[in-house]
Amino acid sequence: MFVLSKSVTIVSALLIVIYLENIVVQTQSLTGNGKFDFGPNQLASNVWYKPKGQLINGHYENSYSNFSLWPNLELHLRNNNGSILIQASEIGFMKNEALMAFRNSNIPVVAVLPGFTQCYDGNVLALLELYGQSPKENLFCTIFNICNSTERQNPNGKGWFVTQDNFSYTPDLLNFDERMPNLIPYLDYNKLMNTSINPPQWLYSNLSWADRKMKARIDVCPQAGSDRIKNLMNDYIKYVSVVNEKFNSTKIPRIQINWNVIAGWEWRDEHCLDLLYEKFNNATDFDYAYRYVTNPYHQDVQHLNDLSELLCSVGSCPEVVFMDIDLTYITSYSLEVLHMNKQILKTLNIPFGISLVDQCAEIDNCIVEIVSSENPKVILNLDAKSKYPNLNRNQMQEFSLLNVLNFLINQSIVDDDTRIAITSWTTWPIEIGQEIVESKSGSMAHTANQIFEKILIPNSFAR
Asked: What start and end residues bound the annotated signal peptide (predicted)?
């Protein structure tokens, strides 16, 4: 998806869609790479995801399918061979002509796969999303709440990659959401520790550590087996095998993956907690070490290395690994992990990327700020209106993203080789139809232009 050199030009293999009587030739996928992805939050196709009780914005039709609403951003993407992120579920709402417009503008399409967060075997998920096959019950209905929709292409028996007007579509890239650590067994901390008192004490003070763990253990995906990490990694291989089978007559999409940078890795790794207990078997000391991650073991870094090597071993090295980061809980911990992950990927010759998103998420009156001190911290200003009375919530997100990107540059996380996804998975910015126009401050297109023009281009990270 991205390149390490700004001198790399777009190399594309295009077949023009030709209508000769009833014969249709499909346009093939682009082969170019770029440093930047743009992911507008036109998420109305994600009918299962309603963080405020309603769908997020609308569809691409009449919004980002209208290139006249974002000509400057289109130019920035084309100049840097950037891509556009489209939810795989959105393709069934789009006509082939709209998807071909991106390809004809030399803007590769990254299809974001929603299924990989689910507790199903990788082969089952691949057959579901790529072919529309459910093993028993209709998984599109039970997982994604797409049951009897007449507004979109029915994915049953077809999968995500058939347009509203019944054209098969081959995306340029596939984006895999995090599979770990969400599907790993974990210990419910509230069943380990009585935190309602100060200092906190073990909830079962008369039990051994092993017995406490038995009472606290939770497994949301027991069918994934006991060798959980290995099995979850192998699901990627199973899925990729089906991808290669489905698209073997066209250009096989390249893959990119998202990777969590969160303290939850430490909390969900039972082996790490065993080691922590060996050092701090006193309840108060254990609680402090747990909460503030004073002794991180960073098994997640090794897992990233192992998964990357596994994918490369079958000829499917990730085009990029994007870091989904929680910078606000313990900023220093996240920065440490980012530096380690960056080095791991550099050693493997796999591009390192940042998912640039608003950590205020669904909070209404919020801006991400940096506390300037000897050890800078990323915080959420939860009373942003008091400090920034002239900003609406869309503009607050724009300000937040600029703050975070500048911070990551100052911390030597983002540099000329870093690939960046400018995206949103939350309610904001709220923008329906032509409200996405890039001239409107706080719109996602305006935000992306500000990132290019105020940060990326002045730092010579983009052209």
From this structure: 1-29
